[in-house]
């Protein structure tokens, strides 16, 4: 016998969990995850930084709203999810200017060196600073979403990979693991596997492309000061930030991949260590741990949130790229409103309202998403 729900969410990462939390109490919800644990892939491999100056304009708007929503929850938690941590870009005048946004102000090289004394002075000629950026306690945020969802009756089933999905009557019939489900709305929050889920469901895929991004925790001779900003190269060749007495580093690579349990490739972290030991005085001595996640993107680099153009009741919540955590609460808020309103309800509000423009920019029906 199939279990019946109003909404079935496929994917137990930050996208799926935040939507389950946003829908809590408004309808019956189940969330299925292929792995034995939630947030196993990209969501457990985040840089844990929410940066309002990072990404396209619509992503920056979603980030500001997400920060507002998370800050509103922090007062109710045993410890805050957010902690102030500035974000600094360094590079040439041209590269910093190209990457900076309205949330970032230009600062002098002297100011940059004061904020991060580990930088070698001659290694960059320009800098920008985003003081509205925050560190994010990702495990706490994920746990809070799960607790809120389950407290409202959401059923979470792990170790249940979707193997079949078809449109029947006014809803969907889904097979996942050993279970069978029926739901009015099927939400595709499957991350790097989002296009694969679409194919299983008989839905045209969107051409979402996963990209590798590696990071490591390294032991350093000279730890960064407690209030150091996260530092990124404007040419996207590295970033680093404090992680206790250690340092988190990344080569910021964007290498196409298939959907997989990604692992670091030999030499990637070692080459970055050589570079960082030239442009900083950190004195990196060894690698404590390293991992690789997949950042899945649409053709236009903007996340996807909306009902499919052709398949009734199939909702896309995917393609977040490197913006998953920083847009999560705002995207879940939008997705929950659209799902509860129904497929034919439109985006809501006047056509010149910010909410309408955001929904239009994220819609799965937009032409710019097709590869």
Protein described:
The protein is of the alpha+beta class and 371 residues long. The protein contains nine helices and 20 strands. The protein has helices spanning 14-23, 57-74, 93-99, 109-115, 138-151, 194-200, 268-279, 324-341, 354-362; strands spanning 3-10, 29-32, 49-50, 82-84, 87-91, 105-107, 126-130, 134-136, 155-157, 162-168, 171-176, 179-188, 209-220, 230-233, 239-243, 246-250, 255-256, 284-297, 304-307, 314-318. Strands 5, 6, 7, 13, 14, 15, 16, 17 and 18 form a nine-stranded mixed beta sheet that branches. Strands 1, 2, 9, 10, 11, 12, 19 and 20 form an eight-stranded mixed beta sheet that branches. It starts with a strand and ends in a 9-residue tail after the last helix.
